[in-house]
Amino acid sequence: MRDVLLKYAEKYETTQFLNGDPSWFMHQVAGRENQETMAFLASCLSYGSRKQFLPKIQMLLDWSEGEPYLWVREGRFMKQFHEDDTTCFYRLYTYSIMYQFLCVFRQLLIDYCTLGNYVHQNATDGLTAVNAICSYFGSRGVSVVVPKNTQSACKRVCMFLRWMTRINSPVDLGLWADFIDRRSLIMPLDTHVVNQSLRLGLLTSKTASMTTARNLTRSLAAVFPDDPLRGDFALFGYGVDENKS
Q1: pLDDT the model gives residue 121
Q2: If we measure between CA atoms, which residue out of 234, 172, 226, 171 comes closest to residue 202?
Q3: Do 115 and 173 contact (CB within 8 A), yes or no?
Q4: 147 phi and psi angles, rounded to 5 deg
Q5: CA angle 146, 147, 152 (to 5 degrees)
């Protein structure tokens, strides 16, 4: 199993991984503030079918004209999203819900300048970073977009933290590596990852919870002790190649 994971991590953590992945969008903007903001927006929309949510993320990138940080902080999103618009934007997210979410995000940027500054002041590792992000948005009534606590696996928040923290990667940006240790990150967990992990003997539970995510992270740390979330690419690659066979 260890050899399998090492092989797939090496094979799939490449620039080609970005094609068709939501992480691609954070590489389309310039500057730390824009990359961080675009990454967070992309992560928040990354659920369901990629064919459906990738075009929605592209809409945000287009509307922001390559400046997502100012688009949020200066309230430019109010041209596209309105408080009383209850039509669907994407799945559970109406235009009104997106408006509320972006208003909360805007206030965070006004108060802390960047999401990274907020996390730096309120977290010391991967788990407390997940909790800090969930607590901020959840306590302000936008738990439809960001989980209100860490009882669930918080897959999208964990994925965002992977993007922000891991260094020496052609995919992840590593912008927060100076205050979040990549060894403390938690594996982004969804049904696909659970199924692959069960097949490889990395998990015994089918429940997609934070406890399961942390257990899987510990299992991956036995293979990748300095960088457990390198296993995210390994499990992705294993699933891709297994589906081909």
Answers
A1: 98
A2: 234
A3: no
A4: -55, 145
A5: 145
- Taking each helix axis from N to C end, the angle separating 210-221 and 191-200, rounded to the nearest 10 degrees, works out to 40
Cβ distance 101 to 110 under 8 Å?
Answer: no
Look at residue 205 in the predicted model and tell me its pLDDT. 87
Mean pLDDT in consecutive groups of 10 residues from the start of the chain, 245 residues: 94 96 98 98 96 98 98 98 98 97 98 98 98 96 92 96 98 98 97 92 92 97 97 91 61
Q: Crossing angle, helix 95-112 and helix 126-138, to 10 degrees?
A: 120
Sequence-ordered list of residues with C-beta below 8 angstroms from that of 198, at least 6 positions apart, any chain: 204, 206
Residue 30 near residue 21 (C-beta atoms within 8 A): no
The dihedrals phi and psi of 84, each to the nearest 5 degrees, come to -100, 10
**Tokens representing residue 74 in the block:** 């200066």
Question: Which amino acid belongs to residue 240?
Answer: V
Place of tokens 């923290």: 165
* Beta strand residue intervals within the chain, DSSP E: 88-90, 93-94
